[in-house]
Amino acid sequence: MAVIDIRMPPTHTTEGLVAAQEIRRRHPQVGTLVLSQYVEVEYALKLVDGTSERVGYLLKERIADVSDLVSALERVAAGGTVVEPSLVSELLEAPAARDPLAELTPREREVLALMAQGRTDRGIAEELVVTRKTVEAHVRSVLRKLDLPVDAGENRRVHAVLAYLRR
Question: What's the distance, CA 60 to chain centroid?
């Protein structure tokens, strides 16, 4: 078992988290219980990335009672997972990540996919057997739904394609 504080020397930032990840990578049979002063969702998710066996994440205040600490260590050592209850609450209450493409119609997604292939409006119109005006309307709708910048120095089509490629 390894019991590690997230914040360790020399910078007291995430050295403990890095150490826990490295222990899990090199020695997956070693249980790792990470302690933190605060609930940090991002850190907890990094800790369980890949597998949730033999891992724990608790607030330091949670282990003030020795029996709670021993219980957590036993569960992690036995191959289980221990997660700070307030972390679970925070994850359940967090809004789901917004998918910027979710609002697009199937046809708009098709137009965006062709834009990502480098097609012009004319090329898209020929591929979909529609008029160029129809393609222009779909492109305008895509750009509006993706809430892209309207700054003259920004290419909205490029931003739309990047949003498509990021998904």
Answer: 25
Give the distance, in angstroms, between the CA of residue 123 and the centroid of all CA atoms in the same chain.
Answer: 35
For residue 115, give the nearest of 159, 71, 52 by alpha carbon: 159
Q: Is 57 helix (H, G, I), strand (E, B) or coil?
A: strand
pTM for the model stands at 0.54
Q: Distance between CA 131 and CA 129 in Å, rounded? A: 7
User: Of the candidates 115, 107, 96, 123, which has an alpha carbon nearest to the alpha carbon of residue 163?
Assistant: 115
Angle at 93 between CA 87 and CA 98, to 5 degrees: 115
- Contacts for 15 with CB less than 8 Å, ≥ 6 apart: 7, 8, 9
Residue range 50-103, pLDDT digits in tens: 667 888 888 888 888 888 899 999 999 998 888 887 776 666 566 556 677 888
The amino acid that residue 154 corresponds to is: E
Biggest distance spanned by C-alpha atoms of the chain: 73
CA–CA dist 123, 157 (Å, integer): 15
Following DSSP, what letter does each residue of 82-136 receive, concatenated? EE-HHHHHHHHHSPPPP-TTTTS-HHHHHHHHHHHTT--HHHHHHHHT--HHHHH
Listed residue (63, 55, 66) closest to 23, CA to CA: 55
